[in-house]
Write a structure and sequence with these properties.
By secondary structure, this protein is an all-alpha fold. The chain has a domain of 41 residues. It contains three helices and no strands. The longest helix has 13 residues. It starts with 14 loop residues before the first helix and ends with a helix.
Length: 59
Amino acid sequence: MGNKLRRQNGIIGGVCGGLGEFFGISAVWFRLVFLLLLLPGGLPGFLPYVILWIIIPPK
């Protein structure tokens, strides 16, 4: 039928693993993006992660 966006078993919440599985790329890239967004003060990386954690259903 198609790929559905679901959280995967991961380090914290499985958001990056789910995004990586959905887009067909390594979850490491998503982890790096969120990590880089955390550097300028935390909120730009933390807030989207928490929102995605709430929105994306578990596997």
